[in-house]
């Protein structure tokens, strides 16, 4: 437990500041204590690059590395790229991911009451699982290191190390232990999602999964092949509790999963390492709606709750866990009562939704 937590806040581009700024006030209200979170704002992103030629200043990097956690809105403007064509907005996430070794991308997938589910007959609460995506190796580890041979053949290596698999699988089991289990039967379960039947690297992933699982005898385990997994997440989502998978597979199924719970505007994301964590909504900077005050703040709000949970568990601080619970309850009530922005067919502005959520957490026990 700490007297205060240092949070590096990077609002970023587009709708980033519109959703990130009010989230700070919501967290303070949920904690019932100003100053327990010490917010320090730093610049990064495509707009800062346009203004200064630097999309991720050294001072921001240092602050992110030193902070207890990083809270981020979104970054990127289409067309604002480096000379090699890579997006400036991605620098913030990717540089932090690799320099701070944020090896676990945790994406909670939960269907809230009041939100239209594209799957027929699925009710609120019946989708409630976590995708744990390996964030540091797999098929994306070799980003830029793939090769094109004589213009005739391209190769990208898929790298999975024992250390990398062990730590992501362990993270998945720890999250299962903290969870209530799958909605269908309350069983705490970790599903290993791979392609072990075809590729050696995934067979290794599964082998290490089995070894780590021995340390968690209270958690049920199972395997799912990635192609069948996409079908299961549509046909029987209530079976799942925690799903652990390789980088690219996690990238794909987390978008599929987000679609089943009402879309990108609702999906939070956490990227965590040993002692650093970066929390931001799954969506991007949405330049098409920036400046209009209609951005859906729920994904950001739920990402802030993820931050409080992670800090609370890591520091044995129940005050933070209680605040995370209040924020999730407020979000659930807000959605159930129809307090939504236009992307969810609602009529409210970002600010109106946030005012309602702040009122709710302030009035809670
Ligand atoms: P990135 O490459 O940064 O992930 P993207 O190209 O996937 O970005 P987003 O910025 O996530 O795109 O936006 C995709 C679509 O979803 C856009 O039409 C955008 O308006 C909408 N969208 C994304 N986030 C929100 C939000 N919070 N509220 C409302 N609409 C959103
Ligand atoms: Mg995207």
Automatic annotation (TrEMBL):
Q: Name one GO biological process term.
A: L-leucine biosynthetic process
Where, by residue number, does the polypeptide cross the bilayer? none
Q: Which domain of life is it from?
A: Bacteria
Every copy of the Isopropylmalate dehydrogenase-like domain together lies at: 6-357
Arranged from A to Z, the UniProt key words for this protein are: Amino-acid biosynthesis, Branched-chain amino acid biosynthesis, Leucine biosynthesis, Magnesium, Manganese, Metal-binding, NAD, Oxidoreductase
Give the E.C. number(s): 1.1.1.85
Among the Pfam families in the record, one is Iso_dh
GO molecular function: any one?
NAD binding
Q: Which InterPro entries match?
A: ICDH/IPMDH, IsoCit/isopropylmalate_DH_CS, IsoPropMal-DH-like_dom
Could you say which cofactors this protein requires?
A: Mn(2+); Mg(2+)
What's the subunit arrangement here? Homodimer.
Give the family per the record: Belongs to the isocitrate and isopropylmalate dehydrogenases family. LeuB type 1 subfamily.
Stated name of the protein:
3-isopropylmalate dehydrogenase
Native organism: Acuticoccus sediminis
